[in-house]
């Protein structure tokens, strides 16, 4: 890292810096100034400041309702983009009931135009999310989420005939379920897995690394089930604050499918079999007599037994 950047930051003189975990996309550092105050610095090499624009907008939007790191500065230095945040002295566990309540309050916030989407898209790895406003959630989710991921998977040569058959059935079922369900466009975190929240020293939740847009609130909740990390208190806190609508358990698998397709598009074949299992467990019959859904433990078992983490990717055993 070019330490000359420190002189550009709106903080006291930086005395120390240390690389820390910040995900697969950005370089991340913990900075300490001459007064002992810590900061969290993200750097994206060879990108303009626009790289962090959506995250900055998202953090500021979320901060109006839930706890997030404070955006202190963002910009460009030489060929790189940077984002400076307040540092959270986090601990491994905290008040999950409160976290569920805060997410529910976030989901009560509505889009400014009663549509689904956002004023701008965002990029995660090789995936660019199209957030063009749409009046119908079904079209937004299928066309601007699943279909774009399908194209990326095809480009990697991982899309099989079996997957196409299962995918077509799943889309048909999703559209049928949506005919009787009309979600309000809620403000979403957009990437709510267990790595994107933490607890401060008082055990209070802090939401990080959002990919915000307005959509079905069940989208966020579906993602929480994929990798685990959210306990019964979290879901109870949510339900006590903003109860879910009837039939949610039949719709969640499709949002879990989105997240698995995203990981397949980014990390490869380790997720291919899991995605197929997700499709096969989604409800597909026409009379509704045998509708099924994916409980949280399904994903826990699949990932514990079938996947191991290696550096920046998961591969199938």
From TrEMBL:
InterPro entries: Fructo-/Ketosamine-3-kinase, Kinase-like_dom_sf. Keywords: Kinase, Transferase. GO terms for molecular function: kinase activity. SUPFAM superfamilies: Protein kinase-like (PK-like). Pfam families: Fructosamin_kin. Belongs to the fructosamine kinase family. This is Fructosamine kinase. It comes from Lentilactobacillus parafarraginis F0439. The lineage of its organism: Bacteria, Bacillati, Bacillota, Bacilli, Lactobacillales.
